[in-house]
Amino acid sequence: MKKILFVLLFSVLMVGAGFIIYLKSNPPLVMNSYTSPNDSTIRIVEIENKGLNEIQLQQILVNDKLPENVELVVSKSEPFEAETKLEDNPNITYHKLRQINIFPSKYIDREAVGKQPQHYAVKVEAPNIKTITIKYNYLKLPFTLTAELQTKK
């Protein structure tokens, strides 16, 4: 009986460890694109949850330091592109970083434009932005996504 219990417990631990290794090697949050509105100190970084569960953002770092200002931007219509009108747009709302979870893109109802969130982005304000690091939780596990932004020449 002890042998069966040991094998069962060992199997559960191995499956759990394999699941965590899989999650860590395939993180759910991705950065799709980024834009710079008129001000060169601001970046709008579009993010997408490719996972199966919601993501809770924890912290944003710019060049390994806290930025001057950071907001989560939610669009109920168009994606965040260079020509997207961000100010005075009724379909775009700004939130504190931990105020809203990022819903998985697989479950977003694309027919509900104007009613439900369709796209997510992070608005970061800091001088000389070279790298952006997003720390977040997925299934109560901590993850980090770092991206280097190209500088205009």
Q: Which labels suit this protein?
A:
about 150 residues; alpha+beta; five-stranded antiparallel beta sheet
Describe this structure in words.
The chain has 153 residues and is of the alpha+beta class. Helix content is 16%, strand content 37%. It contains one helix and eight strands, in the order αββββββββ. The chain has one helix spanning 2-25, and strands at 29-35, 42-49, 55-62, 69-75, 92-95, 119-125, 131-138, 141-148. It has a five-stranded antiparallel β-sheet with strand order 1-2-6-4-5, with no helix packed on it. Strand 1 and strand 2 form a beta hairpin. The longest helix is centred in the N-terminal third of the chain and has 24 residues, at 2-25. The chain is elongated, with a radius of gyration of 19 Å. The model has no long low-confidence stretch (mean pLDDT 86).
